[in-house]
Amino acid sequence: MEKMNFVKDGVLRLPPGFRFHPTDEELVVQYLKRKVHSFPLPASIIPEVDVCKSDPWELPGNCEQERFFFSTKEVKYPNGIRSNRATLSGYWKATGLDKQIVTSDNNQVVGMKKTLVFYRGKPPNGSRTDWIMHEYRLATPQPNNPTQGMQNWVICRIFLKKRGSKVGKNDSIGVISDYKSVKSKPIFYDFMAASKKRRTDLNLAPVSSSSGSSGITDDNEHEEEDSRNLDDVSNSRKKESS
């Protein structure tokens, strides 16, 4: 069977419609473990790149997509085990605890995943960026065989974290509290008030009876005034006729 090779000039090139989205278990068992023990890979799809020789935006591939690389860990000191993760413009800094990678069938621990964040500048005064790296390594010690150079292989998954418009924790609490306060005080509107003879507007203070005229004229007063006007007219006509 011909070996499939999708890496050209250090860049992953898949046919249209194909995507490389392996699980953590698949990365460790099917790719990293086979790479360490010199077994055939399912496909030549992960290039070999020293990720610390370049800044993350200078690595091969599309920066807007996640990228996978086989890389070797370089120790920072000759007699130590601490890795040297300094690049040209900054450094990779580990964050959080390493996560165990377990198999789905028998929950066997086969690898570990370390999360790192890229900082610009020199430690400890570097400025944090949105570049993230997941570094996968085998859980068991790798064979120490300098002739093959396989003792320090890891898989690096590098991507740019996308920022979204999220409401802060304090802001969200304020919005929720305001919503609850409004919700707990319902407002009722009486749209039938115009058809009622008696006004029931609760927002207006009641008018005292001793404060003066209410501005509302009674129908009896109109009738009395009209009768007086008629009497005056009839009296004036009698005088003119006499």
Automatic annotation (TrEMBL):
Sequence ranges of Basic and acidic residues compositional bias: 225-242
NAC domain span: 14-161
Pfam families: NAM (PF02365)
GO MF annotation list: DNA binding
Domain of life: Eukaryota
Swiss-Prot/TrEMBL GO biological process terms: regulation of DNA-templated transcription
Record's keyword annotation contains Transcription regulation: yes
Keywords (A to Z) from UniProt: DNA-binding, Nucleus, Transcription, Transcription regulation
Region (Disordered): 200-242
InterPro entries hit by this protein: NAC-dom, NAC_dom_sf
PANTHER family in the cross-refs: NAC DOMAIN-CONTAINING PROTEIN, PROTEIN CUP-SHAPED COTYLEDON 2-RELATED
This protein's name: NAC domain-containing protein
Organism of provenance: Deinandra increscens subsp. villosa
